[in-house]
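Weekly modeling sync, notes
Attendees: S.R. (lead), two postdocs, one rotation student

Agenda item 3: backlog of single-chain predictions. S.R. asked that every request posted to the team notebook include the full sequence so nobody has to chase files. The rotation student volunteered to paste the first one in as an example of the format we agreed on. Action items at the bottom.

Example entry:
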Amino acid sequence: MGEHCLLSFFSRKLNPSLQVGRIFEISQEDLLRRDIKGLIVDLDNTLTEWGRDAMAEETLDWLRQAQDNGFGICMLSNNRGDRLARIAETLNIAFIEGASKPRRRGFRQAIELLQVEPERIAVIGDQVFTDVLGGNRLGLYTILVSPMSSREFIGTRLVRIPERAVLGALKRSKRKG
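Predicted structure, as returned to the notebook:
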C-alpha cells in the first residue's frame, strides 16, 4: 500500500471529525447546529479516569447540560461489570458493556437505544482505534478527546504508540494540503 493510499485510509477511517482536550470543551451549541441529537460516549479516560467512578464536576455539569439540551446519551464501553451500571444509573443514561469497539455491533446497539438517525449522532472517546474508527465505520460524527490520565489498561498503553503515529501523520497531511 503506497503512502497516498495509507493516508487516504487514515483520513477516512481514523481521522476524528473534531479533536478537543476534554469532553466539557465540546460546544453543545455547535453540536445542536450540526443537528446532533444523540451522543455515544466512552467511559474510561473520557468521562472518568481509568477504573474510577468519580467524575470531574465540569464533566458532570456538561453531561447534565447535554441532557437539558435534549441530547440522548448512551455510554458505550468495552468493559464489563457493576461499575458501568452504577455510573450509568447515577447519570440516568443508557449503557452498553462489552462492546468490542471498534466492531459495529455495540455502536448499532447504541444507535437503536438512542432512537436517533446515525447522521445525527456524535461519538465521544479518547481512542482512535476504538471510538473514532468504530464511529467512522458507521458514518457517525466522531470527537476525539485527550485521555484524562496516563494510567490505563496495559493494552491501551501499547495501542497509544501507533495512535500517536497516526495522529501525527494526519496532522502533517493537513498542513501539506
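Discussion: group reviewed the output briefly. The domain at 13-176 is CATH 3.40.50.1000 (Rossmann fold).
Action items: rotation student to repeat for the remaining queue; S.R. to check formatting next week.
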